[in-house]
Amino acid sequence: MKEYFKMLASSMVVLILCVVILNFLGNLVERKESRIKYRDFFEQNEDFDILFLGSSHMISGVYPMELWDDYGIVSYNLGGHGSRIPTSYIVLKQALDYTTPQLVVIDCCNVKSDRMYSDSIEQAHLSLDAFPLTWHKVRDIHELIGDRKLESEFLWNFVIYHNRWDSLTLQDLEPEISVEKGAESRIGVAVPNEFPIVSQDNKMEEDTVGIAYLRKTIELCQENDIDVLLTFIPFPADKDNQRDANRIYDIAEEYGVNYINFLADVDVVDYEVDCLDEASHLNPSGGKKVTEYIGKYISEHYDIPDRRSFTEYSFWEDDYQNYLDYKISLLKNQNSLACYLMLLYDNDLACQIAVDEDSNIIMDEQIQRLIDNTGAEYILSDLEEDIDISIRVFYNNEIVDTGFFLDKYRVGN
Predict the structure, then answer these.
(1) Which of 18, 105, 313, 390 lies deepest, with the highest CB count within 10 Å?
(2) How far is it, in rounded angstroms, from Cα 95 to Cα 79?
């Protein structure tokens, strides 16, 4: 009997070691995007007052750190690339195990979809990998995925990531740190597609899986005494997307919740300078404008506290300084004049712009709009040879960057 227990104990030790080693290897080989996105969410012990849900439109459309600086709002952007409404519902269920918000903002893009998750399984992993394995997660993954074999990828990452050995880098040992509280500043300036305008009574009529799960998400919030704000983040939307947005008025009225339809009711962005790509997403200039509007709207319609004087949230000031440094680093890394000017739409920064008096750059309609977008005046000057435009950027009256550009490209600092 003694030998039996000794063998049993040895087997248990080996089993535990195997589990520990496999768990370590699983964490090592997994893609790190999800952990990077959610790091600050899980590291914060204090509650978040607002959670943002949606697809990549939400990721690039609302910046929690800007809301902190302007209103002292403590929020997190839980949007996921390609996310469908059912995925947002499951993400919210998971998040409510770790925080109790006062308000949930749900962007309704993709509401017409009958899919439960993104066309790209990798995008679904971004939304869900970082949440710890619990029985709650097992149940939610089963509801979302509905395929036992595929579900295993979300419950034990080693199943899908075990073949990443050849692509491992030092970042897998020390993942990069995001300072944007779930949002993403994606850099680009694109000319938007032309799009028609449809009337508000022209709306999607069918009841999709997206509609069903939008209802479930609202009901989940109301069951937990959480306020709901619905949005449709602006982009150059075709007729179908505008019809989808018009359907949301009915849902908002049915549940007695507020709705901001940026496609029709609110004119806050200039698509000529605020688009990341020609058909879909906002760049940081557009995202900051949307964030400014949502912040003002929330302050006027909801009782969300200003946490800037709360001692337990003082670390957000340090986080904001890191975020400010990140914004300045984005400027310093730009070679495109259009992208550089776009990033100068920022309440933290001021700039002085000089254009060479012999340059034709000011005849470029897009560059002129981008200069106007900064809010700065420019002067004509006799600049150095081959320099079309010179820009000095200030924070608190101190120069943080100087850019010299030949037409659209940086030629020096």
Answers:
(1) 105
(2) 12
